[in-house]
Design goal:
Largest sheet of chain A: 6 strands, mixed
Number of helices of chain A: 9
Strand content of chain B: over 45%
Radius of gyration of chain A: 37 Å
Distance between the termini of chain A: 101 Å
CATH class of the largest domain in chain A: Mainly Beta
Shape of chain A: rod-shaped
Number of domains of chain A: 4
Number of domains of chain B: 1
Strand order of the largest sheet of chain B: 11-10-9-8-12
Shape of chain B: globular
Oligomer: heterodimer
CATH class of chain B: Mainly Beta
Structural class of chain B: mainly beta
Number of helices of chain B: 2
Chain lengths: 476, 393
């Protein structure tokens, strides 16, 4: 407080013009009368004037505004980063991601648009340069002994953005909006925008990406037996997709009832996670993923790109089927469904020909369809031995409606698992050669560890509502 | 000192002198009908009851399609399930793999396979292959001196009469078999017809009419054929009770019907003049019964072998844990009670019977008074999957 001699007995409005250690210069305005404003001065009798130290003005801070389709993207809590002691995150290492916060891969499928703008804390315009990149990961992990090292199979803790890990993002003007160029195939999960401002690394912006399902009709169109023509032999592929996931790649966000049949979508199932998880790929623990429950998925795209999942599912069927003409051909005699089936028919036919050659001819062994014990029979799947007597070879083309060779039944069950309810590893049908004291016979093994008759169940799935779910099997 | 004495003394801990004879076991479970395969190994059983170094013969990821061991030929053959893998020949006198060859892909289905002892002392493995209206018998020389590319050739069906077979290994089908499905001519001559224009094989054995008279449709199998015995099964499948086992004693060229054992049998096998069978009760007549020793069975598939619980469950027989040994020369029957369905006789040599019950290996000596009580030689989990044995001299 400074005291000055009053100039007059009036009220003043005062403005400090300058201040030194000893002098304060003011301007004033008297009220209510308008007097000419002029500087006045006074001397501070209390000693030298000590002005307060000026408050430094902090430089403006950059931060990001991230938008997608004009909507602001919410930042989420990131997952724990991998570390040398734990390079593979646990299966539950998702960040705080829920559908209300996430971006979505659409049902094209295409990645969501992503625009990133730097804003300064003081409202000023960013200056200089900035770099941006997006990194992503999906934390589910499974054990699969065929994958090194130590049997750990990562699905995948991998980068799915368009930039190779070793490359440097290109600097751009910091005042320009950056648009994420999804030059990569589709990927979802935890995502992080890594950026720097004028060379200084900034806090990453964490968000997450989920995905929307295709329409069921889109899946049907892809899996149609005539598309492409060489898929004809996988007439049941769409049945598998309907049975396994109701033609869904992800736990559905819009209509949860579409995928509530999947344990994972409902409550996490046996995955070790605890659902529901709308927008995540349907996971059939331990290895099945997506609409076709591809097991194991060859790449992360099998998880996030529903179209790729269908292609991979078909490719997996092709690998398990072999060629219809295979007989003990390339590779393991019994590793492919069609080679196995053709071999069984040959053995059965050989025994019969030998019986017929006896004097007198002996009764022959019956066709497999005549001794198929059922008891479940679907109207649109009839399986037969389909032996062409002229060639002595079984053929997939039976010429009868809804009638297929047993090679397909073997393949369908092989795709689901060949361990039966009693723990026996066997194919759907086998010719058990005659042995001393026991005549040859067709043996059927229809159960899996979780299905009483998976081939029948597939066959009923002309639509999801038509799918029959039999009681779980017991070893009998 | 005979080998029998050496073994007995070794087990008793009395032998301090290194003996040359060494017992080996071979493991494996051929799985021609299964999507999966199992590892095959070979290992010695040491004199202190331990198991020696285990040598892989066929890896588990591939597995075997067929395994046969012949004491006459002194070898074992392991055929892999994959054509791009090698067939393995084990020499008993070297206790080592002496030959590995890949079978050429003929683009035909494998129907059956056997061992032959072709004239000139050439042991051979033979595949009977067929596809549609084509067929052929393709042999592979097992002579280690013959290179792989010179080892394969087509043989005549008449060569099949040189069959060398031992029968079934293991129980409930776990070890596979090397027997031959045969036919029988009007005069009783054993034969084998190969369709697809391949032809017919005639064996030098004629079954007496007395063994055939009551069989409208006799279905014979040559279960075993060695230098001393040919074992034959006969049945009219319309009458399961008509099943019978015959032995042709080569020393005097006489046929013998194996004596009734008081119960059914399965998994017949021959070791020289000895015929080993497992007591087996058909399920239809054994309702309510269960194979013995369930608590010791493996309950799930493993890399070394299938679930025995599943095999017993699927078997048409119940195994009470009794093994029979018939001496064709002396016409004498011996019984071994193991009380374990998963048991089998692995070898009979120099008057000693080696048998397995679950994961335990025993020996018993054949004496004038019968078999001595079983003596435990070794216990090990790898013994569980051993279905063949030999002694390296």
């Amino acid at each position: 407080m400074y005291d000055c001699e009053p100039v007059d007995d009036v009220a003043f409005r005062v403005r400090i013009i300058s201040a030194t250690a000893t002098t304060l210069t003011l301007s004033y305005q008297a009220t209510p009368q308008a007097l000419p404003s002029e500087p006045i001065g006074c001397t501070c009798p209390g000693g030298p004037f000590e002005p307060p130290a000026p408050t430094p003005v902090p430089p403006p801070k950059p931060s990001l505004i991230v938008t997608s389709n004009g909507q602001t993207v919410a930042q989420v809590t990131p997952p724990p980063p991998p570390s040398p002691s734990s390079p593979v995150p646990p299966a539950t290492a998702w960040g705080s991601c829920n559908p209300n916060q996430a971006l979505f891969i659409d049902n094209t499928p295409a990645m969501p648009p992503l625009q990133v703008t730097i804003v300064m804390s003081d409202g000023s315009r960013p200056t200089g340069t900035a770099t941006f990149s997006v990194w992503g990961s999906f934390p589910q992990t499974n054990l699969n002994t065929s994958y090194p090292p130590n049997g750990t199979f990562l699905i995948p803790w991998a980068y799915w953005n368009g930039l190779p890990a070793a490359s440097q993002p290109t600097p751009q003007s910091a005042s320009d909006t950056w648009t994420a160029g999804w030059s990569t195939p589709v990927g979802g999960g935890n995502a992080s925008i890594q950026w720097d401002y004028n060379g200084a690394p900034q806090q990453p912006f964490n968000f997450c990406i989920l995905a929307n399902n295709p329409d069921e009709s889109a899946v049907t169109a892809v899996l149609a037996p005539s598309n492409p023509a060489y898929w004809y032999q996988y007439w049941f592929a769409n049945y598998i997709s309907i049975h396994e996931t109701n033609q869904s790649q992800f736990c559905d966000t819009g209509d949860p009832s579409r995928t509530n049949g999947a344990d994972y979508c409902r409550n996490g199932g046996t995955s070790g996670e605890s659902g529901p998880y709308p927008g995540r790929p349907i996971w059939g623990f331990p290895f099945g993923y997506g609409a076709m429950q591809v097991d194991p998925p060859p790449t992360s795209y099998t998880l996030w790109n529903w179209y790729q999942n269908l292609l991979d599912g078909i490719a997996q069927l092709q690998a398990k089927a072999g060629q219809p003409s295979d007989v003990a051909a390339q590779g393991a005699q019994n590793s492919t469904a069609y080679a196995f089936w053709n071999g069984q028919v040959q053995q059965w036919n050989d025994e019969n020909l030998a019986l017929q050659a006896q004097t007198p001819p002996q009764p022959t062994f019956p066709t497999p369809e005549s001794v198929d014990p059922g008891p479940n029979r679907a109207n649109n799947c009839h399986f037969i031995g389909s032996l062409d007597a002229a060639t002595g070879i079984s053929t997939p083309n039976t010429g009868l409606p809804y009638t297929y060779w047993y090679g397909d039944a073997i393949l369908m069950r092989m795709n689901a698992g060949t361990i039966d309810a009693c723990g026996h590893n066997a194919n759907y049908i086998s010719w058990i050669n005659s042995k001393p004291g026991t005549p040859g016979r067709w043996a059927f093994d229809k159960t899996t560890t979780i299905n009483s008759d998976i081939v029948y169940e597939f066959c009923t799935c002309t639509s999801f509502s038509a799918c029959v779910r039999l009681p779980k099997p017991t070893c009998q | 000192m005979g080998f029998r004495s050496v073994v007995v003394m070794a087990v008793l801990g009395l032998c301090s002198v290194a003996a040359r004879a060494q017992l080996y076991l071979i493991t494996g479970s051929p799985s021609p009908k299964s999507p999966g395969g199992y590892v095959s190994t070979m290992f010695p059983v040491e004199r202190d009851g331990s198991v020696g170094k285990v040598q892989n013969l066929v890896t588990g990821s591939i597995g075997t399609d067929w395994i046969s061991a012949s004491q006459d030929l002194r070898l074992a053959v392991l055929a892999p399930r994959a054509l791009d893998q090698e067939l393995v020949v084990v020499d008993f006198d070297k206790a080592a793999v002496v030959k590995r060859c890949r079978k050429p892909n003929m683009g035909m289905a494998l129907i059956e396979q056997w061992l032959l002892d072709l004239p000139g002392g050439t042991p051979a493995y033979v595949d009977y292959l067929a596809l549609g209206n084509r067929g052929e018998l393709r042999a592979m020389s097992l002579d280690p001196a013959v290179s792989c590319d010179q080892s394969f050739g087509i043989i005549s069906p008449s060569d099949v009469k040189y069959l060398v077979a031992s029968g079934s290994a293991g129980v409930a089908g776990v070890g596979g078999y090397d027997y031959l499905r045969a036919g029988i001519e009007k005069d009783g001559t054993l034969s084998r017809f190969f369709p697809h224009g391949v032809g017919k094989a005639y064996f030098d054995y004629q079954v007496p009419a007395e063994f055939l008279r009551d069989l409208m449709h006799p279905s014979p199998f040559i279960i075993a054929n060695n230098k001393r015995v040919t074992m034959l099964s006969l049945i009219d499948y319309d009458r399961p009770e008509s099943f019978r086992l015959l032995a042709f004693r080569k020393s005097d060229k006489t046929w013998h019907r194996l004596p009734a054992m008081g119960e059914g049998t399965d998994d017949e096998r021959a070791f020289g003049e000895y015929i080993a069978v497992a007591g087996a009760i058909r399920r239809q007549t054994g309702v309510g019964l269960e194979s013995q020793g369930k608590s010791e069975w493996r309950t799930a598939d493993s890399p070394t072998g299938p679930s025995m619980a599943a095999l017993f469950h699927d078997s048409r027989f119940i195994f009470p844990g009794r093994l029979y040994l018939y001496d064709v020369a002396a016409e004498r029957l011996y019984t071994i009670d193991t009380h374990q369905g998963d048991s089998e006789i692995l070898l009979v040599e120099d008057g000693v019977v080696y048998y397995r019950a679950s994961d335990r290996l025993y020996s018993a000596t054949i004496t004038d008074k019968g078999l001595t009580p079983g003596r435990l030689l070794a216990t090990s989990d790898v013994i569980r999957d051993a279905h063949w044995a030999f002694i390296k001299h």
